[in-house]
Amino acid sequence: MTLYSDAAEAAPAIAERIAGAERVLILTHINPDGDAIGSLLGMWHALRALGKQVVPLASSTLPSYALWLPGVEHVQVYQSSQALPAADLAILLDTASLTRVGRVYDEHAAALAALPIVIVDHHVTNDAAGMLNLIRPAAASTCELLFALLQALGLTITPTLATCLLLGLITDTQSFQTSATTTETLRTAAALLECGADYMRIVHEVYFALPSSSATLIGLALAEMRHEGPLAWTTVTQAMMRATGAEDEAADEVVRMMQRVEGVRVLVLFKERYDGTTKISLRSQPPINVASLAQVWGGGGHAQASGATLLMPPDQAANEVLPRLRALASGER
Q1: Nearest-angstrom CA–CA distance, 128 and 293
Q2: Are strands 89-93 and 117-121 parallel, antiparallel or unpaired?
Q3: Beta-sheet strand order (sheet of 23-27)
Q4: What is the pLDDT of residue 103?
Q5: CATH class label, 2-206
Q6: Whole-angstrom Cα distance, residue 174 to residue 48?
Q7: What pLDDT score was predicted for residue 74?
Q8: Contact by Cβ (8 Å): 71, 39
Q9: Is pLDDT at 170 greater than 60 in this prediction?
C-alpha cells in the first residue's frame, strides 16, 4: 500500500495502473453528495477518453441536483444481490473507507478485496486501504484533488468533465464558504471555468431548483430545532419524510440552514433511516473537531463536517451523541 498526498507525485504510479487495466469499476460513498458524483463522473469521462471500459457504480440514489450532469445516465445504482461488474481495477473516490461504499461492499467485500484499488480522497479519516492512495485532507474537495491529478496525468479537461468537477467543488465548499477553501481551491475553480464548465447551470440546479417538498421539510425540522448555547440539534423522522414527500437530500438543506443561525458553533442533525437506524450529520466551527466524534460510531469525514450511522432510533442516538457534543463545545475531552 502506497500513500501519496501530492497529485504530481502520485500520477506516474496511478497512470501505470490505469494503463494496465481494461475494465475499471468506479465507486464512491453511500448517499452520495455533489463531490461524490462530480468526482465519479469526472473520472468516468477521463477514463473513457483513454479508451477504457468503465462502470461508475453508486450504492444509493443520486441527489436530484446532479441528475442533469453529462454522463449521469451511465451511472448504475446498485441493487441488492446484483452481480459485481467485471473489472481488473477499482477506483474509490471521496470515500474514507471501503465500508462506506455501502451495499456494494457489504455484499462483495471479498471480490473487492481481490481487486487492485486506487483511492483518491480528501477526508482526514481515510484509512488508506488501497494499493495506491492519493489522500490530501488539505484539499477542499475530492474534485479539487482529482483535477490536479488529471492535469498531472496530462489529460485534456473537456467542458463536460470540467462541469462535473466544478459541481463537486462548489457543493463541498458551500460556494467557497467553508474553512477548507484555499487559494488553490479558487484557482481550481477559475481553471475549470476556463475549461468551459457550465457554471450557471450548476448554480441553478444546486441553489434555485429546491423542490417545494424539501422546503416544507426544512420548515418542519427547523421548527423542532433546539438551541442550547453554542449547540443546536434537530431530528428528521421518517414520518416527516412521508408527510412532505421530500427527497433524501432535503435533510442536507436542513443542516445548511442550521449552520446559518447566529451563535451556533456545533450542531447535529439526527435523520431517522427507513431501517430504524439514525444517520447523524455533524458540523462545527474551528477549532471544534467533530471528525473524532464521528469515528466513535464508525463514521468519519472532516474536522468541521462529519457523519456516522448509529444502529438505534433517533431518541436513543440523541442520548448517546448530545452529552459528547456538549463536552466538545465546552472544550472538554
Answers
A1: 20
A2: parallel
A3: 2-4, 132-135, 117-121, 89-93, 23-27, 53-58, 76-77
A4: 93
A5: alpha beta
A6: 29
A7: 97
A8: no
A9: yes
Distance spanning both ends of the chain, measured CA to CA: 33
Distances (CA, A) of 304 to 86, 96, 229: 37, 15, 18
CB 300 within 8 A of CB 123: yes
- Domain 212-329 CATH (choose: 3.40.50.300, 3.10.310.30, 3.40.50.1370, 3.30.565.10): 3.10.310.30
d(CA 227, CA 261): 10
What are the tens digits of pLDDT across the range 64-82?
Answer: 999 999 999 999 999 998 9
Half-sphere exposure of residue 173, counting CA atoms within 13 Å on the CB side?
A: 26
Q: Does residue 178 have a pLDDT over 80?
A: yes
What are the cell numbers at 110? 471479498
Average pLDDT over residues 231-247: 96
Kindly tell me if the per-residue pLDDT of 53 is higher than 80: yes
Spans of all domains in the chain = 2-206, 212-329
The pLDDT score that the predictor gives to residue 1 is: 85
Per-residue pLDDT of 84-110, as tens digits, reads 999 999 999 999 999 999 999 999 999
Burial 203-228 (b: 16+ CB within 10 A, else e): eebbeeeebeebebbbebbeeebeee
List residues bridging with 119 in a β-sheet: 92, 133
Question: Would you list the DSSP string of 115-138?
Answer: S-EEEEE--TT----SSEEEE-TT
Looking only at the bridges linking them, the beta strands covering 76-77 and 53-58 are parallel
pLDDT of amino acid 4:
97
Alpha helix (H) ranges present in the chain? 7-19, 34-49, 103-113, 142-152, 159-172, 183-194, 199-207, 212-223, 238-244, 250-259, 291-295, 314-329
Reading the block at residue 42, the C-alpha cell is 469526472
